[in-house]
Amino acid sequence: MEDANILFAFLLTLFAGLSTGIGSLMAFMSKGFNPKFLAGSLGFSAGVMIYVSFVEILDEAKESLMENYGDSTGYLLTVIAFFSGIALIAVIDKLVPSFENPHELKCVEDCDEKLKDRKLMRMGVMSALAIAIHNFPEGLATFMAAIENPALGVSIAIAIAIHNIPEGIAVSVPIYYATKSRKKAFWFSFASGLAEPLGALVGYYLLLQFFSPALFGTVFAGVAGIMVFISLDELLPTAEKYGEHHIAIYGLVSGMAVMAVSLLMLQ
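-> structure tokens emitted (267 positions)
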């Protein structure tokens, strides 16, 4: 495996992770904030991730596992790995309390009363921990996809980056109300995105050392499950929260269409 491919995959993951800083800036620049545009972008991101998960990633995982274990067993392992990926991210989401969970959106207007009695240290540590736990598997997903197919990795990295914008908003707002410092809120949010490249490093040092077609198929199917869950549990509900139902759905269909065309052009 070429070092250039690994570096490229890592840089894509870094880009996706640090986009939380964009969300933090948007939280404090309300005059330039367009909720409908963000809703459409989140729907678009969900469309990209859902389409590429079912059409590209899961298919490649199935082919790899069927080649190693035969059609019947390979197909069964693909299904198990896919739902294991969903179970992993669902358990992570369930274990993080809703108050510290960066996927449970908060808004500037209603945070003051809720957060005024919270301690600064607890807010900082718990918010940073929550975002790190959530972003770690996303970093692994982006990295593994980019390793297998750089063009596919770019699409997934952009989709994850769009997803991380409202996540950055959700992390920076409680930090701001705990510290009364926009600067600290921004840096906490920005730094929390580093969990994604950390996931890429773990993928490199732990998984790639034992890389095989069978391992690739299992991880890739799990990655598809993670991405589908993120899209259905986070991106689409968040899109509807910021905008309107039809804007989110139009964005979803547009994301699928753009991804379909791009994959056809790569054939």
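Residues 107-121 have pLDDT under 50 and may be disordered.
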